[in-house]
Design the sequence.
């Protein structure tokens, strides 16, 4: 009888613990999806400061490096720090960059004309499988958890390696 009671209590604790893990996982799932949607919405609304904040550090670094190298090749002198600051405050370089980006990418299509099929998630990494309604093949938006916050891996998703 004691063994049965102990087993029942252990099973109950396991079930409650497991339920809390599922609940946390559902919460993480919502945060992942909200973060991705906020990113695309911020681009559509031209709130580039918000877009920049949601990007992974790798995406921000690679974008700044590309601009820096382009400027350097054209004898325009800006430091990495100046470029970073410009993006953080939504300065003229940031507005020009994102304006050019939006000429070839319409975030409203992702928001309004795509099916967000599923989320593949691990502890600090997730992929959102997104399919344009007229496409056979989806793309996998890569998301990374940095310092406890989910970020969009724009470069990690779309740039060629």
Sequence:
């Amino acid at each position: 009888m004691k063994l049965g009671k102990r087993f029942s209590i252990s099973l109950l604790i396991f079930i409650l613990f497991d339920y809390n893990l599922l609940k946390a996982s559902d919460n993480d799932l919502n945060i992942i999806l909200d973060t991705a949607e906020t990113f695309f919405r911020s681009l559509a609304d031209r709130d580039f400061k918000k877009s920049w904040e949601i990007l992974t550090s790798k995406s921000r670094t690679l974008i700044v490096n590309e601009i820096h190298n382009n400027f350097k090749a054209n004898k325009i002198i800006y430091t990495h720090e100046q470029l970073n600051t410009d993006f953080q405050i939504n300065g003229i370089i940031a507005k020009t960059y994102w304006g050019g980006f939006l000429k070839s990418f319409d975030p409203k299509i992702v928001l309004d004309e795509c099916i967000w099929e599923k989320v593949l998630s691990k502890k600090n990494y997730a992929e959102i499988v997104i399919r344009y309604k007229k496409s056979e093949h989806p793309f996998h938006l890569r998301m990374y958890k940095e310092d406890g916050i989910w970020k969009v891996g724009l470069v990690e998703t779309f740039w060629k390696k």
